[in-house]
Specification:
The protein is 21% helix and 40% strand. With 290 residues, it is α+β, with helices and mostly antiparallel strands. It has a seven-stranded mixed sheet, with helices on both faces. Strands 7-11-10-8-9 form a five-stranded antiparallel sheet. Strands 6-12 form a two-stranded antiparallel sheet. It starts with 6 loop residues before the first helix and ends in a 6-residue tail after the last strand.
Length: 290
């Protein structure tokens, strides 16, 4: 069995405190570095080790904070608070914080208040953290069912050329026009009504088939439409033939369904709870504090 040295918990508490400081976004507190396993010399020249430490300067004064971390399976006793007081009494100007996962025994709260020591419970999240004190559940995860519906796809298109117009076009090579239209993308081929001024591409036509065809079914199908005063033309208008309608084949695929789960509990770095007041904060891996 691996021995618990407490180092992992110290790193955990340091990461939590770094996130809390970063979240404050105060100009004078930016870029504060939280240090783990910090050694500070006391008034007697003795180096004292502290699990977590950070400092900042504000208004010409240095503010230094130390945290004593105890990864115990049982609650912290008052003698541990006494030891922390003795360890820091020869280093003036320190703000003192005690952190544990489990809580504190009777008497520790009063002793901590006498020496202005903040008692914190810093731990990983549990299921109960996703419920407010009055029993209101918090959103722990979101299940997203994403349905992607694609419009019908035109697989072939057959324009009906106006024969009377075709006869009037001397020297028109219909085969050349067909070949040229075959080399154009469907968003560059347009149907244009000369009376109404309505002009839409074959791409737009495909997107509208689901509305044009009542009770359209998934799979392959055909659709035809009669037109008047209309032309099939290229985007620049250089290719242009008069049509009286068209027929097309289409493929309409069933929607694809995918499920995505957002589990906020996996994004939770840890919980910080003030032992005296009971106030609790949720610290997330992306730096958010709630």
């Amino acid at each position: 069995m691996k021995k618990n040295t407490g180092k992992e918990y110290e790193e955990f508490v340091g990461a939590i405190q770094q996130s809390l400081l970063n979240a404050e976004e105060m100009s004078h507190l930016k870029n504060i570095l939280v240090e783990v396993n910090k050694k500070i010399e006391d008034r007697n020249g003795i180096l004292r080790q502290f699990d977590v430490y950070w400092e900042f300067n504000y208004g010409g004064y240095d503010y230094k904070t130390v945290i004593e971390c105890k990864d115990y399976t049982s609650t912290v006793t008052i003698d541990k608070i006494d030891a922390f007081i003795g360890k820091t009494q020869d280093i003036p100007g320190l703000r003192l914080i005690y952190a544990t996962k489990t809580g504190y025994q009777s008497g520790t709260k009063k002793k901590a208040e006498q020496y202005k020591i903040d008692l914190l419970i810093i731990r990983e999240g549990i299921d109960d953290d996703w419920t407010t004190p009055d029993g209101t559940p918090l959103v722990k995860s979101i299940n997203l069912n994403i349905i992607a519906q694609s419009p019908p796809k035109i697989t072939s298109f057959y324009p009906f050329i106006d024969s009377s117009w075709l006869k009037s076009q001397s020297g028109l090579n219909i085969e050349d026009i067909n070949n040229n239209f075959n080399n154009i993308l469907n968003n560059e081929v347009f149907i244009s009504n000369q009376v109404t001024g309505i002009r839409y591409s074959l791409y737009d036509l495909a997107n509208s088939l689901a509305d044009k065809i009542p009770d359209i079914k998934y799979g392959n199908g055909t659709y035809s439409e009669t037109l008047s005063n209309s032309y099939l033309e290229s985007a620049d208008g250089e290719l242009k033939i008069r049509i009286i309608g068209y027929k097309l084949n289409y493929q309409y695929s069933e929607p694809t369904v995918s499920t995505s789960v957002i589990d906020y509990s996996k994004e939770l770095l840890g919980i910080v709870q003030n032992y005296s007041s009971g106030n609790k904060q949720m610290i997330f891996k992306d730096g958010q504090v709630k």
